[in-house]
Amino acid sequence: MKIVKILAAIILVVLIVVGIGVYFVFKNLNDIVKYAVEEGGTEATRTEVLLSSADIDIRAGRGELGGLSIANPQGFSSEKLFSFNKIVVDIEPTSITKDVIVIDEVTIDGVNVRAEHKNLTETNIEAMLKNLTQGAGGSSSESSGSSGEPGKEVLLAVKKLVFSNSKLSLSSDQLGSFDLTVPSFEVNNLGSASNGLTPKQLAEAALKPLLKKAQDQVEKTIKDKAEDELKSKIEDKLKEKVDQEDLDKLKGLKSLFDKG
């Protein structure tokens, strides 16, 4: 009987401890998400990542992030490379207290990408891709949470990531400025319930497809505009040459009449 009472007491203590842990996670979830996005994003991109707000409703299995921005890599302007109007997150509520938090869908609507092209070939998008590649790899399994206390790092899995209504502006030192679009697209299975990604790894996996889509548009535009400009300059040169030849002929004719 004594053993049963002791076991019951131990189970009660465990439940209380777990309950406190769950309460802490739920109470501080918005701060945890904001911290994870900013910390993981900054580590992955090697630039400043800021998130204005996080509003997570676990009961509804839904969250919304607002005011996310990613700064330009070094060597480019002080303008933001990315700004995101709204990010809607559908979460599996039962996964919030497990090792890996599973997100059914993330919809990123209204991405604004500001591409910069300088030194004939280099773009800020290429520089960011290099940052992500150089920053790729494992991450420490221990980190500080938003409370400042050391603990196990948050692991995440995203079943579906959707980018929609993205806008792309290109500013080129040589070719001028252009407004472009990035077609809507989706990426599936970033991590899994059994193999979650750290915030840094998830930032890399989510940003690379968007960067590559934007870079494709930038490269095509630069190539087309450069070809048009080159063609125009060649035509101008040909016109100049023809005009000079005509002028020389006229001068020749004039000299003949002058002799007469």
Would you write up a description of this structure?
- This protein is an alpha+beta fold.
- The protein has one domain.
- 45% of the residues lie in helices and 34% in strands.
- The chain has 4 helices and 11 strands.
- The strands form 2 sheets. Strands 1, 2, 3, 4, 5, 8, 9, 10 and 11 form a 9-stranded mixed β-sheet that branches.
- Strand 2 and strand 3 form a beta hairpin.
- Helix 2 crosses helix 4 and helix 3 packs antiparallel against helix 4.
- About 10% of the residues have low confidence.
Compact summary:
The chain has four helices and eleven strands, in the order ααβββββαββββββα. It has 260 residues and is an alpha+beta fold.
Q: Average pLDDT value?
A: 77
For the record, give the distance between the C-alpha atoms at the N and C termini, rounded to a whole number: 138 Å
Described by strand count, sense and barrel closure, the largest sheet is: 9 strands, mixed
Order of helices and strands: HHEEEEEHEEEEEEH
* Low-confidence segments: 12-24, 138-150
Helix content: 40-55%
Number of helices: 4
Instruction: Provide the number of structural domains.
Output: 1
- Strand share of the residues? 25-35%
